């Protein structure tokens, strides 16, 4: 015997071999089956272990409880005139039909069950076997039960009796980041043991509601598992939305931080499930209720950033104050946070200061570094969210002139404290002008002793002139231009004196010593001790002027480069005579030794002869 599964769509073996295996058997799912009045049902029927052609025919009969011995012909695969009068109109309209799945398997379909459709259903297969042997029909009991499922929307309305609820619909208007809560009541008075599945879904406003247009948000399955729909899955895992059962009949949907894309018509879809004798679960009825029409106003459409005053003119050292005003959702959403920053300049601008979502202030790098020190820059929140913010620079500098803008960013904070940016805005530009207090600096380099000889100390002087109404501090550095091959001369710093008067000495190629000192109010000196040919080059001094403000910060008022002077270590005259003298002495000494050796050799030779 084959397995004869009524649900299998795998073709049966060839009829010849089938006839050799055993008796014919017709398969139907086990009963009784419970289905709800007004819903659709399908009965699969198949035959196995038969002889003859692979295309088998089927006939369906119904035995009603009121006349259990009388068979009523419903539909046949071979005879269009087979249906009895009670079923003929339904067959002709397609409400009752048979669908062939394969040659030896078909499916009886009833599009809309009636109460009188309850009874015993028989699937019969006319014989094609050489001998009458086996089971030529099979029966299953169908019980048609009344629809006892109802769905209640949160608005005052009667229980749902059709496919959709009444026209009364709750209207909700929310701001982005607020919480949405919707309730759905589902109850069933079915006498059989059934399970309910509850799903919350949303469709676009004014869109027809159906499985194609309804997007599931989250649902409770018949086995009590909770699952979120496709685009809501990540938010469910993040804890932004949930579904919970309150009591025995009520289900609650909560979306903690709504988004503009969450707008639409929300529905509650309830399905009733029953377990058939073959252990499979079947959806026997489903209903849907419209819960609310939800509109979500985005923060981007409500966020406005303004700043003032539109124009500021002040002198160096005075305090600069600018105000930034934010307007957003009213009332403010509890999970929305703002970050505010001030920038100066065109484009993205240079950061002046920022106040993050946790209220921590950060000063831009240009306002706190080793060059300028740490300027007294503050950004303070004056009123509750979204609120007003004040930027204050205690001692303005000429370099603070420019166009300032306030930049605001709005975030929604998720349950796990993760921030999602939802909007940003910029204010109009504010013009800040500084009254001119120019610092004019000039530098002149020269050699007090034009001719420098090897081994001497070379002196280079840098005279500085300053025109300013403020106290100016000078930073001076000495540079030498070095030429390598045919390349452009490269500058190399030799030594420097900071604005605080701290000297820093580099390394000479010759390895000799050098020193820096100040020989006048505005005159700096560089000395190269024991100059050598490797010290040759063109030297210049570079001067940077710094102004210090009351907040102890520094401002670079300008830099200037002096003219260049040539350092060429000359050779001394005695050095030019020293080598010939040595050569002459060595030559004379060698000649004398040679003559003395010759005389001695001759004298010894004469002495031996004697």
From TrEMBL:
Its main location: membrane. PROSITE patterns: IG_LIKE. Pfam families: V-set. The chain crosses the membrane at residues 577-604. It is a single-pass type I membrane protein. One of its GO terms (cellular component) is membrane. SUPFAM superfamilies: Immunoglobulin (SSF48726). SMART domains: IG (SM00409), IGc2 (SM00408). It is found in: Membrane. InterPro entries: Ig-like_dom (IPR007110), Ig-like_dom_sf (IPR036179), Ig-like_fold (IPR013783), Ig_sub (IPR003599), Ig_sub2 (IPR003598), Ig_V-set (IPR013106), IgSF_V-set/TM_domain (IPR051102). Keywords: Disulfide bond, Immunoglobulin domain, Membrane, Repeat, Signal, Transmembrane, Transmembrane helix. Residues 14-123, 301-423, 455-566 form the Ig-like domain. Coiled coil: none annotated. PANTHER family: IMMUNOGLOBULIN SUPERFAMILY MEMBER 8, V-SET AND TRANSMEMBRANE DOMAIN-CONTAINING PROTEIN. This is Immunoglobulin superfamily member 8.
């Amino acid at each position: 015997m084959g397995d004869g599964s009524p649900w299998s769509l795998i073709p049966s073996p060839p009829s010849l071999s089938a006839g050799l295996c055993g008796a014919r058997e017709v398969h139907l799912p086990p009963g009784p089956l419970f289905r709800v009045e007004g819903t659709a049902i399908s009965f699969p029927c198949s035959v196995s272990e038969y002889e003859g052609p692979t295309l088998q025919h089927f006939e369906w009969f119904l035995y009603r409880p009121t006349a259990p011995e009388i068979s009523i012909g419903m539909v046949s695969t071979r005879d269009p005139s087979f249906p009895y009068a009670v079923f003929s109109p339904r067959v002709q309209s397609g409400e009752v039909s048979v669908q062939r799945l394969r040659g030896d398997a078909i499916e009886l379909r009833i599009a809309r069950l009636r109460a009188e459709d309850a009874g015993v259903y028989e699937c019969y297969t006319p014989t094609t076997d050489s001998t009458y042997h086996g089971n030529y029909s099979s029966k299953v009991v169908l019980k048609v039960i009344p629809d006892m499922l109802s769905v209640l929307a949160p608005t005052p309305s009667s229980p749902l009796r059709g496919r959709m609820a009444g026209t009364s619909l709750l209207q909700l208007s929310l701001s982005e980041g607020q919480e949405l809560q919707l309730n759905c009541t589902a109850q069933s008075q079915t006498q059989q043991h059934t399970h309910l599945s509850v799903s919350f879904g949303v469709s676009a406003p004014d869109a027809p509601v159906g499985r194609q247009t309804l997007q599931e948000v989250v649902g409770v399955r018949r086995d009590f598992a909770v699952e979120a729909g496709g685009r809501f899955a990540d938010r469910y895992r993040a804890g932004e939305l949930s579904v919970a059962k309150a009591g025995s009949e009520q289900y609650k949907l909560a979306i903690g931080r709504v988004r503009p894309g969450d707008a639409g018509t929300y529905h509650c879809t309830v399905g009733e499930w029953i377990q058939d004798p073959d252990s499979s679960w079947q959806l026997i009825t489903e209903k849907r209720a419209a819960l609310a029409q939800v509109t979500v106003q985005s923060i981007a459409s409500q966020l406005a950033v303004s700043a003032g005053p539109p124009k500021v003119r002040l002198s160096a050292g005075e305090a600069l104050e600018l105000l930034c005003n934010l307007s957003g959702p009213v009332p403010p959403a509890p999970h929305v946070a703002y970050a505010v920053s001030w920038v100066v300049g065109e484009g993205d601008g240079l950061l002046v200061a920022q106040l993050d979502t946790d209220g921590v202030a950060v000063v831009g790098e240009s306002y706190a570094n080793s060059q300028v020190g740490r300027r007294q820059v503050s950004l303070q929140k004056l009123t509750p969210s979204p609120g007003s913010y004040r930027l204050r620079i205690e001692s303005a500098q000429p370099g603070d002139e420019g166009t300032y803008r306030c930049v605001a960013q709005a975030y929604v904070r998720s349950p796990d404290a993760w921030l999602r940016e939802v909007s940003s805005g910029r204010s109009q530009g504010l013009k800040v002008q500084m009254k001119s207090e120019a610092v004019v600096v000039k530098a002149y380099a020269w050699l007090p002793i034009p001719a420098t000889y090897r081994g001497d100390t070379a002196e280079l002087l840098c005279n500085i002139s300053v025109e300013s109404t403020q106290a100016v501090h000078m930073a001076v550095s000495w540079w030498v231009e070095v030429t390598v091959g045919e390349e452009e001369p490269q500058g190399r710093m030799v030594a420097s004196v900071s604005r605080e008067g701290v000297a820093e000495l580099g390394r000479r190629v010759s390895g000799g010593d050098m020193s820096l000192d100040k020989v006048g109010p505005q005159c700096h000196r560089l000395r190269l001790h024991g100059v050598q040919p490797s010290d040759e080059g063109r030297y210049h001094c570079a001067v940077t002027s710094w102004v210090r403000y009351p907040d102890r910060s520094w401002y670079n008022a300008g830099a200037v480069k002096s003219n260049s002077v040539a350092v060429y270590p000359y050779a001394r005259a005695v050095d030019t005579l020293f080598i010939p003298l040595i050569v002459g002495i060595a030559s004379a000494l060698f000649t004398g030794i040679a003559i003395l050796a010759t005389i001695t050799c001759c004298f010894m030779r004469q002495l031996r002869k004697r």
